[in-house]
Write a structure and sequence with these properties.
By secondary structure, the protein is mainly α. It is built from six helices and no strands.
């Protein structure tokens, strides 16, 4: 099984000149990218990068599990030392990459939380937990307008349905009359 290549920061949505100006990440132990780079990126792009990071974490974890499944238990069978060392180094590399991905995800989360702090809603307000009551929904003036328009549309649809029902009843009565006349002629 081959290790995934470590790519530099992928920032979709940015023009190529701003991606080219990103400093290379030569120090994998550094926990923070330059502040100017993340400050320019909108939260939606940060969330997309976070989603890709989670997908990378899942794929790395799956590779670790596949590597562990392929490893034989030491039940008296001797394996070559080179095979053991190779698998051990692969496992160590996957774990190191996994820790870096978790650090990256944590930075993205903190930056998203920082940039969306002015929204005034915390994640617990947006998604209620099981067993808790949902917080009261704030109603804005636009909601009243939308509700009023919705009621108007329902009234129109109900009126049209009644008109259609009346027409269908009239057509049914007309067809019965025509069929009755046809049977009398025979």
């Amino acid at each position: 099984m081959t290790a995934l290549p470590v790519a530099g920061p992928r920032l979709p949505g940015l023009p190529p000149q701003s991606q080219a100006s990103l400093p290379p990440q030569s120090n994998p132990g550094s926990s923070q990218p330059p502040q100017g780079v993340l400050r320019e990126i909108p939260p939606a792009i940060l969330c997309k990068i976070g989603q890709e990071t989670v997908q990378d974490i899942v794929s790395r974890s799956m590779e670790i599990f596949h590597l562990m499944r392929a490893t034989q238990l030491p039940n008296g069978v001797t394996q070559s030392h080179a095979v053991y060392q190779d698998r051990f180094h692969k496992l160590q590399e996957h774990l190191r990459q996994l820790t870096l991905l978790f650090r990256k995800l944590r930075l993205l989360y903190e930056k998203c939380a920082e940039t969306t702090a002015e929204l005034g809603e915390t994640p617990s307000e947006l998604i209620p937990y099981l067993g808790e009551e949902a917080p009261g929904v704030q109603v804005d003036p636009c909601g009243f307008t939308a509700q009023w328009e919705r009621q108007e549309v329902f009234k129109k649809v109900k009126q049209k349905n009644q008109e259609m029902k009346l027409l269908m009843d009239q057509m049914r009565n007309l067809l019965w009359d025509v069929n009755a006349m046809l049977t009398l002629r025979k």
